[in-house]
Amino acid sequence: MLISTTPNVEGRKIKEYRGVVFGEVINGIDFTKDFMASITNFMGGRSEEYEQEIIDARADALTEMSQRAEKIGANAIIGVKIDYEPMSIGERGAGMLMVTASGTAVVLE
What pTM was computed for the model? Predict the structure, then answer.
């Protein structure tokens, strides 16, 4: 599956538009990662725990989007956009991260 942020693919003609496809992932941030990130926040520096969580969630969202495009007969996704949203769930404000990937599923010649 070809995935592109551009509205077309150089050298390839769009034969058919199949529709908008999405991949959504909501990952919880566990206590250990949250605690380590709070120390990093206090001391300064990069939070490898959160960075890895973002990398994993983004990969999962792209995979899910690709699978949905494949199910409707597409061989590429163009105009891809990825959004990140922190979420607080429940009374204690448990940290979660939502990643959404969206794009237009197409059939390229």
Answer: 0.80
DSSP 26-54: EEE--HHHHHHHHHHHHH-S--HHHHHHH
Inter-CA distances, 27 with 43, 64, 106, 108, Å: 25, 14, 29, 33
Residue 91's Cβ-count burial label (10 Å; 0-12, 13-18, 19+) is exposed
d(CA 41, CA 45): 7
> What pLDDT, in 10s, does the model give residues 11-21?
999 999 999 99
* Model confidence pLDDT, tens digit, residues 71-107: 999 999 999 999 998 876 655 555 778 999 999 999 9
**Which amino acid appears at position 51 of this protein?**
E
CB 27 within 8 Å of CB 57 = yes
